Amino acid sequence: MVSENDSIRLIFGLKIKALRQSKGLSYQQLADNAGLSVSYVHDIESGKKFPKADKIISLAKTLGVDYDYLVSLRASKKLQPIIDLISSDVINAIPWEHFGLTPANLLDLFSSAPDKVTAFISTLLKISRRYQLSKEGFYNSALRSYQDLHDNYFEDLEQAVMTFRETHGITNEVPLALETMEKILAHSGIVVNRKKMAGVKALERLRSFFSEQSKTLYINRKLTIAQEKFLIGRELGFQYLNPGIRPFETVYTGNASFDIM
Question: What's the whole-model pTM score?
């Protein structure tokens, strides 16, 4: 996830690198002219450091721009779409870390070929606006692509499943009976409640809701056995893997076409 501080450093570093390259300056030349060390300039351009005001003034003077330009969100026509992306919520709709990308990697990607990257990003943004693609939709599409690249097979998860089966003495009972799954969930102190959601109109849009406080998995009783198994299995996974950040609700979703199912 790219934080607000990451975004500020990335945008600043991107501007410095673009200006340095446009003037044909090396790291050493920029560092010498601005009174900075080469390593510090490199850290700025890679999005690791954000300089104090006096150093920004020195960089602005060396690069022939004003202070306000460097610290603002405005940039040249080539860089503006990238900066708009970095400073928007869209950038966090993509699970960059799952693709092995850090903020520094993103900066290298953006600055290595700004013309091509800008054209690509502009295309993505236009498509998302044209088809009213939400942040959640963008995230789901990125996640699907990641799963497809790995043929939906992840060794660490497979090993966790094997360990889980051994821990709970699960041998050849596949698929597991609903009662068995509920008993395993109960070992974690969690009960399943199918009655509560039926009497609350505001919860009709939900398939399920997990309450950490009461250790209860509320399930909409309109679901099929297969759907209940999925939700209980999902909760078993969350409890066993303990991912930290997790959703507590499962909502009804619809797909516009079979292509994205």
Answer: 0.53
